[in-house]
Amino acid sequence: MSIPSANQADLRLVEVKELLSGILLSDSVLNLIDSSVVRNIRVIENDIYVRLFHGSDQTNLIDLVRSALQNIPWCNRVVVDPRTIPGVKRTLAVASGKGGVGKTSVTVALARSLKLSGFKVGILDADVYGPNISTVLSSDEIIVDTLETSSGTKFVPHVVDGIKIISVGMLAEEGQSLAWRGPILTRLLKQFMFDVQWEDLDFLLIDLPPGTGDAQITLLQECPLAAVLLVGIPGLSSQSDLIRTVAMFKEFNLPFLGYIENFSNVKCPHCGEQFSFLLDHSGHIDSPSEIPGTDVPLIAQLQIHPEILTQRSGDSVQTLESVHPEVFSSLASVCSKLIP
């Protein structure tokens, strides 16, 4: 059997990608390549290797991809490496370039809006440096339970307001320093994705730590992410960090739901005038259509509501989706289209 030249191998890789680009997801305009469902494509001599990132309802894609590639005349063998989170249909990442921009609040607001729309929802708090899901949900007594199953020991997610929650903060005492080395962090995140008794979820939202570190790389390499939602605040510093974050996700060809600009403006409680949270010399409220330097669209600018920032334990809880219902209802509708 002759070994293809380097040029032939490149041409064969292009042929494989073009074939997979012609396969559409069910009831979607996205194909297997543009949706990033198929990644890590390799052609070694006459063998084809692909990694398939799919939801629990998309197991049919395994045979579909295998049979399509086996029809290539020169193909000798097809190896499909499926990656899915048991019981989870679609996994969404909520990411930011900086910390402290309200990413966790946006995650919880979207989860509640999806639940209100009739979906089963879970949250994986992967922000290892500042796990605040329990604080935002006003539930500080979240602990980790385990369950012995036929496939091994599983973590049991805590349920708050009908939303299943698992957080790295459950593994530490209140006030304890969370300093995780890369290998430990990677192993922990894999366990929280694949060794949790999620059972049956339509959406799993992953609240990522800010930036472009080990946690993000682990998820991009291992997790069947369907799309990314970005959160930031006005200002050049936030925007420059977001541009780097966008570049990282684009390396893996992941679709973006869009960008939410939090703390966008403030309404004066006395005169009612709105002004930019970060004032420039003119006091003008900037309304960009996308993250500057990228093609990621701006989908909402969230006004600051002091009652959210100043609420205390025992108060009537004000949440982002309750003060911006149209924004999160619309975002939930966009997410719903990911499930045919």
List the keywords.
alpha/beta; 31% helix; 340 residues; three-stranded mixed sheet; eight-stranded mixed sheet; 10 helices; GMP Synthetase, Chain A, domain 3; Rossmann fold
Explain how this protein is built:
It is a single chain. This protein has 340 residues and is α/β, with parallel strands linked by helices. It has helices at 6-21, 60-70, 103-116, 133-136, 182-194, 214-222, 236-251, 306-310, 320-323, 325-336, and strands spanning 38-44, 47-53, 77-83, 88-95, 121-125, 145-149, 152-156, 158-160, 163-167, 201-207, 225-232, 256-261, 265-267, 274-276, 298-301. It has 2 domains: 6-83, Fe-S cluster assembly (FSCA) (GMP Synthetase, Chain A, domain 3, 2-Layer Sandwich); 88-336, 3-Layer(aba) Sandwich (Rossmann fold). The protein has an 8-stranded mixed beta sheet, sandwiched between helices. Strands 1-2-3 form a 3-stranded mixed beta sheet.
What's the helix count? Answer: 10
The low-confidence runs, each spanning 5 or more residues with pLDDT under 50, are 280-285
Strand order, largest beta sheet: 8-9-5-10-4-11-12-15
Note the gap between the termini: 44 Å
> What is the overall shape?
globular
Note the beta-strand portion: 15-25%
CATH topology of the largest domain: Rossmann fold
- What order do the helices and strands follow? HEEHEEHEHEEEEHEHEHEEEEHHH
Classified in CATH, the superfamily of the largest domain is: P-loop containing nucleotide triphosphate hydrolases
Topology:
Elements: H1 6-21, E1 38-44, E2 47-53, H2 60-70, E3 77-83, E4 88-95, H3 103-116, E5 121-125, H4 133-136, E6 145-149, E7 152-156, E8 158-160, E9 163-167, H5 182-194, E10 201-207, H6 214-222, E11 225-232, H7 236-251, E12 256-261, E13 265-267, E14 274-276, E15 298-301, H8 306-310, H9 320-323, H10 325-336
Parallel strand pairs: 2-3, 4-10, 4-11, 5-9, 5-10, 11-12, 12-15
Antiparallel strand pairs: 1-2, 6-7, 8-9, 13-14
Helix pairs in contact: 3-10, 5-6
